[in-house]
Amino acid sequence: QVQLLESGGGLVQAGGSLRLSCAASGRTLREYSMGWFRQAPGKEREFVAAISWSGETTYYADSVKDRFTISRDNTKSTVALQMNSLQPVDTAVYYCAERRGRWSMPTMRALDYDYWGQGTQVTVSS
Questions:
Q1: Is the dihedral of CA 104, 105, 109, 115 positive or negative?
Q2: What is the pLDDT of residues 96-124, one digit of tens each?
Q3: Considering all CA atoms of the chain, what is the largest pairwise distance in Å, rounded to the nearest integer?
Q4: Rounded to 10 degrees, what is the CA torsion of 31, 26, 101, 54?
Q5: 30: left (phi > 0), else alpha (psi -120 to 50), else beta?
Q6: What one-character DSSP code corresponds to residue 66?
Q7: pLDDT score at 123
Q8: CA neighbor of 121 nearest in space, from 91, 96, 88
Q9: Smallest Cα–Cα separation from 97: which of 15, 35, 45?
Q10: From the CB of residue 67, how many other CB atoms can be counted at a distance below 10 Å?
Q11: Cα torsion 8, 12, 96, 108: sign
Q12: d(CA 26, CA 83)
C-alpha cells in the first residue's frame, strides 16, 4: 500500500507562484498515473491536472491550463505541480492521488483514483 504526502502549500499573493510536491512511500509510483485535485470550502473536489505513468501524457482542467504544470520524477517517486499566475479562485486544499490500476491512463474523475494524500492548503490573497 502506498502513502502519499503533499508539501509546498502556503500563502501567496495574486500573481505569485507555488510548487507543490507529492512524495510516495511504501512502494514506487512509476507504474501508476497520478493526479492533482483540489477542494475549496463549500465546494466539491475538482480535477486540476493528471499525468500518465510514463510522464508522456498530461491533462489539465481548463481553469488552470497554461498556468499550472504537472511533472513527475519516477526515480524519486515524486509528482510535482508548478502553479504560476495564482489567483484567489485557486485557493483550496490540494490533494495528490494515485490512479487505480498499474499502467492505466490518467483520468479527470476522482472516483478513478484509489490512494490520496492528506492535502496541502494553498491560499491566494488578492
A1: positive
A2: 999 999 999 999 999 999 999 999 999 99
A3: 41
A4: -20
A5: alpha
A6: T
A7: 98
A8: 91
A9: 35
A10: 15
A11: negative
A12: 27
